[in-house]
Amino acid sequence: MMKKSKLLMLLGSVLILGLFIFPLWNITLEAPQYPTPLGMDIYINDFADANPHDIKNINLMNHYVGMKYIPESIPEFKIFPAVIIGMSILGLLFGFLGRHKLYLAWFILMSLLALAGIYDFYLWEYDYGHNLDPKAIMKFTNPDGSIMGFQPPLFGTKDILNFTAHSYPQLGAYFLAAGMACTFIAFFVGKKESK
Amino acid sequence: MKRLSKLVLLSALGALTLIGCNPAGKKSDKGGALSSSAAEKVYVAPGEHDEFYAFVSGGFSGQLAVYGLPSGRLFKVIPVFSQDAEKAWGYNEETKPMLNTSYGFVPWDDSHHPDISQTAGELDGRYVFINANNTPRIAKIDLTTFETTEIIEVPNSAGNHSSSFVTENTEYVVAGTRFSVPVPQRDMPISEYKGNFKGALSFISVNPEDGGMDVKFQLLMPGFNYDLSHPGRGKSHGWFFFTTYNTEEASTLLEVNASQNDKDFIAAVNWKKIEEYVNNGGGKMMPANYAHNVYDEHTHTATSTMKKEVLVVDPSEVPGAVYLLPTPKSPHGCDVDPSGEYIVGNGKLSANLTVHSFTKMLDAIENKKFDGDAYGIPILNFDSVLAGTVEQPGLGPLHTEFDGKGNAYTTFFISSEVVKWKLGTWDVVDRKSTYYSVGHLMIPGGNSQKPFGKYVLAMNKITKDRYLPTGPEVTQSAQLYDITGEKMELLLDFPTVGEPHYAAGIPADIIKPNSKKIFKLEENKHKYAALSEADTKVVRNGKEVHVYMTMIRSHFSPDNIEGIKVGDKVYFHITNLEQDYDVPHGVSMIGANTSELLIMPGQTESFVWEPKQPGVWPFYCTDFCSALHQEMQGYVRVSPANSNIELSWSLGE
């Protein structure tokens, strides 16, 4: 019979592939004129409408304050999938090797990559919310006189002018988290088993 | 002391006067306590939706208005037979063909009887059909877009009044002629009407897939006036019933000459039998000329085709297909109860209501209980088909609807009331006044096997003092009654657009989920659509110029055009690039001899402009579309006819 730790490691490595099926993150914008809120699902390889034409309509809203259009594609959509596939293969390899220390190594590496991903997302968001067209139709300033930014929250809920923006992880992120948790537990179980 | 008692007396008198006055002022309708509950019953809180849609025809306005019940709030006036500058109906290039007829472009009509499509005898909410009375036509309104998508002219018909009622599976929408006419039309003395004029009853098939209409056959009946009609349902499915008057066949002073016969007829037509007859090659194809206009949702454009022949059937050649049921005194409404057993003839000059039995009718046919014939059509014996009579319910019965609980509700024009009576016992249960002179009434689903008997809507011909006066022409009005109890209760008066001639009601839940929010740009197949700003252009073809323009918050593309010359005919084809719910844009050009356009997201519409003098002429968005609506404008430079300025166009340069 296969060891429990090995099973967990293999399972964890497969679970992270859920990112190819489910969205990683979602940003939703609520406003009185949008009884059905505008929403964007972020996949590891795509920006998708929560409801048909949402991104087009977000762009239309945002052009008034000089925000750029949400791009059709970004370099991350090539890098992220490659990283996830690579990590999945690596995880399976480590799983078959059955060495619990490798499990921990995989977990740490994945954690670092995830943090890098979140930081990258933050940078994109910051640029999206602050790098405004100087010919913007409407310009808003903060109470201190600086130009107001429209960066959506990285995580959580924030009021931006007439919109309330929500930014929360989606099922894909939970698959990643669950996969990572499996590998982390696999390390401890493996450690116990090897004693 | 004396003074004090005087004061008390005075104030007591004052109080009495106040008490006396207050209820007197309100009494004309109903008591104070009742009216508060009536208010609650029709109150639909802000943001909440009504329980029913009511499609109320506009009579002489030629349109069809959409209201919510019980609130009586108006949502939309759907243009059908009359030009509507607000929506560019009949003004823009796309919809002008919809109003084409064999008489050319007809910008107006008299819209009377909306009826909702049915499946298995129940409302299915796909389409509303409505008739044009004056220049005979039948229109179909698509209930996903709430727009008129098809209009077919009815040949050999005049005063298209006993229309447009659908059979139980929408196999046919039926259109009967009120005025009989020479068929085919020809130059002949009016005095030779009798025996020579014909009344055409048209059975227009409805394609079950796409709803396409086609005149399947016309039954050429004797020259009576065919006033109203309804399909059989349930057991009487396959039959259609038409009231007739002027069986005297008078052509002058009809108010006297058409009111002489003690009994006119309800014509019972076995359309299944005639359908079978024509499917087997029966009937005669005769030359005709009538328009068939179809609006395509993807090209956003209508086409008009002239049809050149129609299949006519002589009833005497299909034995057993048509019978006449004697019915007293110029019957108006012809209504069939939900079970299909009772056929109510509302004899408008009679004091009684006559109800025929379908079962007895079949038996009378079987046993040949005939009292002669009219032009070869057997007349059934009156007593052999009579189910019962509602004795003296009121004056001037016009129309009856049913609540599905064994009750019928009939309007009385002269005595101005709605009377509730019981099917089978023919007992009057209740009566309520209307304000004033009610014509049709409507219970949602009241013309189907499954009525939704919660409300009855009475549509009045006269309102006089019911609302604030607005000069000699006062508002038209409908009234809503609660019919859930034994007694009816008047809940609400509300003004209507045009004459509220008749209506069709349906639970909102059947239609609401199918209502489109936008037109998809990728499905736009308009010949002159520009589906992105990159596709915009201006093309000259001799003196004709086509502008392929787009609109999106908050600009037109292009918004500067030069090189147009006096004498050009400029077609603006404008596509709304929005794909967001409820973001239409409008457009109008200074001095254009047409209406504005109001263009829905994903739609393309066109208007023509013939500039008459050199200059720089602005156009702008006519619908307050966005925060920068006031900035949504553009200019066209018009040069003299002999100038050689090149055609150019731009945005943001």
From TrEMBL, chain B:
<dbReference type="InterPro" id="IPR041114">
    <property type="entry name" value="Nos_propeller"/>
</dbReference>
<keyword id="KW-0186">Copper</keyword>
<dbReference type="InterPro" id="IPR011045">
    <property type="entry name" value="N2O_reductase_N"/>
</dbReference>
<dbReference type="InterPro" id="IPR001505">
    <property type="entry name" value="Copper_CuA"/>
</dbReference>
<protein>
    <submittedName>
        <fullName>Nitrous oxide reductase</fullName>
    </submittedName>
</protein>
<dbReference type="GO" id="GO:0030313">
    <property type="term" value="C:cell envelope"/>
</dbReference>
<keyword id="KW-0732">Signal</keyword>
<dbReference type="InterPro" id="IPR008972">
    <property type="entry name" value="Cupredoxin"/>
</dbReference>
<feature type="signal peptide">
    <location>
        <begin position="1"/>
        <end position="20"/>
    </location>
</feature>
<dbReference type="InterPro" id="IPR051403">
    <property type="entry name" value="NosZ/Cyto_c_oxidase_sub2"/>
</dbReference>
<dbReference type="GO" id="GO:0005507">
    <property type="term" value="F:copper ion binding"/>
</dbReference>
<dbReference type="Pfam" id="PF18764">
    <property type="entry name" value="nos_propeller"/>
</dbReference>
<keyword id="KW-0479">Metal-binding</keyword>
<dbReference type="InterPro" id="IPR026468">
    <property type="entry name" value="Nitrous_oxide_Rdtase_Sec-dep"/>
</dbReference>
<dbReference type="InterPro" id="IPR015943">
    <property type="entry name" value="WD40/YVTN_repeat-like_dom_sf"/>
</dbReference>
